[in-house]
Amino acid sequence: MSTTSLPASESAARLREALTAAAFTADGLLERLGAPAYAALARSETVPALRATRGDSPLDTLVRLFLLQCPVPAAAAAAALPLEECAADGWVVHEGDLVRATVDVRPYGGPEGQDWFIVSDLGCAVGGAGGIGSHEEGVVLGVGGASTTLAGITVRKPVTSALDLGTGSGIQALHAASHAGRVTATDVNPRALEFTRLTLALSGAAPADLREGSLFDPVGAETFDLIVSNPPFVISPGARLTYRDGGMGGDDLCRTLVQQAGEHLAEGGYAQFLANWQHVEGEEWQDRVRSWVPAGCDAWIVQREVQDVTQYAELWLRDSGDHRTDPDLYAERYEAWLDEFEARSTRAVGFGWITLRKSAAAAVNPSIVAEEWPHAVEQPLGSAVEAHFARQDYLREHDDAALLSAHFTLAEEVVQEQVGLPGAEDPEHVVLRQHRGMRRATKVDAVGAGFAGVCDGSLPAGRILDAIAQLMAEDPVLLRDRTPQAIRLLVEEGFLEPVR
Length: 500
Known about the structure:
Blueprint: H1 12-21, H2 26-33, H3 35-42, H4 47-52, H5 58-67, E1 72-73, H6 74-80, H7 83-89, E2 92-95, E3 98-101, E4 104-109, E5 115-120, H8 145-153, E6 159-165, H9 171-177, E7 180-187, H10 190-202, E8 209-212, E9 224-229, H11 252-261, E10 265-280, H12 285-290, E11 297-308, H13 309-319, H14 327-343, E12 346-358, H15 360-364, E13 368-372, H16 382-397, H17 400-405, E14 407-410, E15 414-419, E16 429-434, E17 441-444, H18 446-454, E18 456-460, H19 461-471, H20 476-482, H21 484-492, E19 496-498
Parallel strand pairs: 6-7, 6-9, 7-8, 9-10, 11-13
Antiparallel strand pairs: 1-3, 2-3, 4-5, 10-12, 11-12, 14-18, 14-19, 15-16, 16-17
Helix pairs in contact: 2-3, 5-6, 13-14, 18-19, 19-20
């Protein structure tokens, strides 16, 4: 699987014109296939899409050629794209009267409606590695759930420089190119760098500075305003597959990546990663991951999912197609995973997001939040991530007395729910619930509910509490003493917004 077998990018502009002219785009694909067939592709099921593209339109031809990897008649291909130019550059090859694609091309919608295209190894746009029937170490995957998750949580403010570490097929580099003046993309796999080049060219994005190497080795002592990485985070008994296995023991690769990121972040810069971490006997997972955070950085660590060691092993054995191999080989590999976990006293594996932010304040008093949030969220979350750190700055700068003098407003789309027996005079408890961002919910008492309900920015918090104390016949001094902690929590979780 050498890089010399990959297409040249000279014809990318003309191929892009043909793809967009035929509506071979994310929106066009959904409209042509219909929602059920489109969703089936993510499950590696191609029959519905094949049925939906039985016609002879250019879009039908392109879907079958580049997305479903079916040979198509040369005459149909010539009607859909600049065939001979694409053949000369290696995007397609002739096989008698048929033409087949040499790479996987998947339409991908940008956050502002851009028509982008992700180029990867054959089969990797549909169902991931488990669907390609290949165990080649150097395989480069296309769009997957992990890559779209990372793209969604990334802070998208304009920056001078961005680094996509472990670029794969270039999805994060493509996103970064839309708001970064300069993009550097690295990977240990030279094929991945070539695919990133093709993805950027076919999507009409500016080229990136492509560098081969592991972790931060290719960038030396350079610093960046944004670092993103969907690394090979799988905790496995070896490094059989480059796209997922980091080649270090346990969760050492993720730990090393996070620990080294601090020295490569510019002041105010963000580093955002997907990661796996071990749940080890006798150790809290929060303590384990907090210990990775480098000096001078605030951190927000969110655990999204936990799997026991058997679930985890089975997930990644299926991902690589091992469940379709010889049963004895499958059992041998399954045993190897369990041996690895037993040797490391690992009872489960967590998956989640880690965001670092470099700041002078963090060097003195870092904010490190590690939480479990397996519930639904509203993507994209980049603005919510940025707001989280802004709230941490605010709370770090304001003691309890300052909070009582501050003005707050209730965040948008926060609703109050009262829970109790039907007909009861008073609810058992009151819940504030967000319908945006992290979609959090938190229980509050009568004071907290009343306080949040009247926060419109017009009165300082202390004056509101005095009024509540009078209505509830409470001592206003005691109420002022005990309430700042609750206000602090409501601000930290985004229910209340400070009026600055």
